[in-house]
Amino acid sequence: MDNNKKYCKGCGILLQDQNLLQEGYTTSLENDYCQRCFRLKNYGDYQVVTKSNEEYLNIIKSVGETKDLVLYITDLLNLDEDITKIRNLINNKMILVLNKRDCLPESVKDEKLIKYIEDMNLNFEEIIVVSVKNNLNIDYLFRKIKYFQTSRNVYIIGHTNAGKSSLINKLIETYSENGQELTVSPLPSTTLNMIKIDINKYLTLIDTPGLVSSDSILNRVDVSMIKKMSPKKEIKPRTYQLKKGQSIVIEDLIRIDYIEGNKNSFTLFISNDLKVKRLFNIINNDNLKDKSKITYNVKYNEDLVIGGMGFIKIVNKGTIDIYIDSGVKTYLRKSLI
Known about the structure:
By secondary structure, the chain is of the alpha+beta class. The protein has helices at residues 35-43, 53-64, 83-89, 110-118, 138-148, 164-175, 223-229, and strands spanning 69-75, 94-99, 126-129, 153-158, 195-200, 203-207, 238-242, 247-250, 254-260, 264-269, 276-279, 292-298, 302-306, 310-314, 318-324, 330-334. The termini are far apart.
C-alpha cells in the first residue's frame, strides 16, 4: 500500500472523492470509510462489487513470498473444498481456524472436526475451532499466534464469508486499544484490499480480500435470501427418511430426488430460516425440474455439499438427482459429522 494515500478502514479500498460510481468513493477524504462501507455499516445497504479470483490469488501468492505466519480462516458450515490447493499455494507457517462453531450443533465434538482435517495431512501448525459469537477459543488462538509468529506481521486469508473480518474485530476488541473496525457483512466481497491492523507493538494483522467462490449459490440469489441462508444461531438439523421416488425441496433453490436405493436418512445442516418441504411422489411433480440436473451415486456416510448453503448428510448408498441453477457447485465428500 502507498503510505501517502488513504485507504478505507472498513474494506481497504483506496479512497477517492471524484467519482461517485467508482469503488472507494467518499464525500470527503477526511472520512475513514468509503460510501459503500458507510452505508453497509449504518443502513445495511449492500453494493455489489465484482472482482476476479485472479486478483485475489495474486495477493495470496504475494503472502506466500513472505516468511510470515498465516491464519487460514474457513467456515465450518461451508468448509472449503480446495483447502489443499490454498495450502499448497502458501508454504508459510499456517494455523487453520475452523470458524463459526456456534452454527453447528453442540453435540458435535470439536475433536472430530479437527481429526477430519488432520486426516488430509496438510501440515498445519495447529487446527483451532473457534466461535467469535461465543468467544470460543479466542484466547487460545491469540496465544498460538504469538507462539508461531515469525515477525510482527500475521496474514489472514480465506474465502469470502468465512468470517475473517468478524474474527479480526474480536481480536481488536479483546487485545488492542486500536479503535479500528472492519466492515462485517454476510454478503460476498466485503473486504476489497489488504488492510493492516496494529493490535499492539508486537503484532500487526493483515487482512486480505476473501477468495470469491464464483460457483456459490450466494451469487445466484438476492440480498434477502443471502441473509436467510446465513445462520444466526445454532443449526437444528432436520432429518428426512426418504424412500425411492421421494424428494426434498429447499425454498425454490434446489430439489433432491431419491432415485434408487433402500430407505435412506437425509439430515440437513442449513440455516433454520430456510423452508424445506418433502415431495412424496416425484413422478407427478415437475417443481424445479427446469433447473440443471446432476446425478450422484452416493456411498455410505457421505455429505452432499451445496456451495454457500451448507450440506446434507446421507447415511446409506443410493442414487440421487439434483436440480439446481447451472453453475452452482455441489459435490460429495466423506461425512463431516
